[in-house]
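Figure-free illustration: sequence to structure, shown twice.
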Amino acid sequence: MLWTLWTLSLLSALIQFLACVRREAPLSSFAKSFLFLTATLLLSPHLSLHQCTLAYASLTIGLGVALTFLMYLLLKSPKQLFLKTVSLTLFGVLVFFCWGMQAFFVMNEERPVLKVALTGKIELKQLEWKAPQGSLEKRKLPHYEVVLKSVDDEVLFSQVLCGELVAIRARVFRFTRLFNTLGFSSRYQFELLYNGYNDAQSYNRLPIQAFSIAELSRHTFWHKFFWKMWSGAFMQQQHFAWLKSATLESNYFPLVDANQRPIVREFLITISSGGLSAIPSS
C-alpha cells in the first residue's frame, strides 16, 4: 500500500505539472485531484488513518510542484512577487503539517495484527519428560486450548498446551524515525507458540512445548530476502542506517488464574514503532 501512495504522489505531481504547462489554474487542478483521491480512499476502507494522511501529503507535494513551476512561469512579472511568496509560504506550512501528522500517526498507532483466544477448554494428556537434573516422569497433565485468529476472526491456528502461560514469539524490524515519517511502519514475522510457567522452579522441572506458526506469515521472495537481512542485523553481522533494531519479541498470556482455573479471554496483538504489544480484545 505504501508504494501505491507514492505512485499517487508522482501521478498527482505530473497531472498538476501538465496543468501548469497548459496555463490552467493550479488550484483548479489540485481541487480535481483532491476529489479524485478522496473518492479513491472512500472506496478503500481498509486504509488506516496515517495512510490516508500520507496520501493527502503526497497530493500536497504535487501541488507544490505545480506552484513551483507556476512561479517559474511568472518570474518575468514582478507584480506577482507577493502572490508567489504567499503561495510558497502556505505550501511549506501545509507540507510540514501533513508530514508531521503522518509521523505522529506512524509513531503512535497500534496496528492490530492477530487475535489470541483462550477458550478455557481442558484436555488431559499423557506426557513423558525428563527434567535436566531430575528423573524420568510420566503422568497426565491438563492442556488448555489456544486459538489464533485474524483480526477479522478467521481461525488460523489451534493448539492445546500445558503450563500456566502461553507465549507468541516474533521477529520484529523497527525503522528509524526518518523512515517512520516517510510511512514505513514496523515489520513482524511470527515464529513460535510455546508454553511457560510463573516461576523458575517450574521451568526446570515441568515440560516445555513449542509449535511453529511461521505459516501465519507470508513467504514471498521479497519477504525471504527481507528477513535474511533481519538475521544479519540480529546477529550483529550487518548494519543498516535505516534500521533502528532487529529483535526477537514475545508476548505472554495467562492460561490459568491464581486458583489454577482456566481463563477465558481474547487478546489483540498489535504492532507499533515500539514493537509488539498486547491488549485485551473488546
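We now fold a second protein in the same way, so the two outputs can be compared directly.
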Amino acid sequence: MKVKQKGNTGDHSTIVQVSGDLNTGLNYEEVCKVFLDLFELNFPKIQEIAAKTAYKRVNDYLESLFDLLKNNKDRIDSKKFIDPAVQFEMQSIIINVAKRGENSNKDLLNEVLINLVNKECSDIIEMISGETLKIIPFLNKKHLAYLSLVTLARDVQYPSNDLIKLNKSIEDVGPEIISALDNERTDLFYLTSIGAIEKLETYKLNFAPDYILNFPEFRGKRINKIIKILLKRELKSLIAFIDIINKTDVGYFKNTTMGMLIGMLNIKHHLKIENVGDFFINKFLQ
C-alpha cells in the first residue's frame, strides 16, 4: 500500500489515505492490510511494550473483521474501501482499537463499518454511521444497554399480534438491556452531551411502548391494569420490560438517530440476527 495523502489533525493524529487495487470482488487480506497501514502510520514511535500491546489489539480486531467481511460478502460494496471518507473512518476505528482494546467496543464498530459499506447504504445512513463511529468507543456496557432499551421502547414496531411471541422476543433480548438499570443521572447527562439521547420537553409517567398498548386487550387501559393482565397470563418478560423502562426514566428521553442506530446494531450483534426486521421493524430504517 502507498500513502496517497498525509496531514495532521488537531488531536495529534495523522490523516492518511492509502491507495491500492481492491478487486471488485472482495479481497479480505487487502482490506486488512489497509487497516494495518493506517495503524502503523499513526503509531510510528510508541515504546516497545506499548507497541506489542497495540499490535495484539489490532491483530485480534482484524481477525474478527476478516470473519465479518466473509460472512457479509454479499452485502458489501468493496469499492467503498478505497473511498477517502470510508478510509478516514477506518483510521478512526483502528486508532481507537489500538488505544482502548476491548473497551473500544470493537464488535459494534465492526457492525457500523459493515453498515457503512453496505451496497444498500443510503447517503443519510452513511453520514449517521460516520458520526456514530466517533462515539461508540466511549460507551460502556450500561450505556449500550440504555440505548438498546430506548430503541426497543420507542424506535421499533412489533409486526405481530401474538403476545406470547412478543414475550419470548423480549425474553431473548433481556440480557442486553438489564444493565440499563445501572445508569445514574450522570450517565444520562453524559449520553445527552455526546448526542446519543435527547431529553423530551413533555414526558410520560408509567410509560409503555405503543406496540404493547395497541394490543386489543390493552387499548384504553392504565399500566397497572395491563400489568395485572400480563401477570395473569404469566408473561413475566413483558412485565419486567415495562418495569425496567420506568425505573430508567425512558419516559423522559428519546434516542437521537445515532443512539437509535447504536441500539439497534447492538441488539442485532448480540442476538446474532441476520436481518433486524426479523426481530422488530425499525421505524427509522424502513
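Summary for the second example: Residues 48-71 form the longest helix (24 residues).
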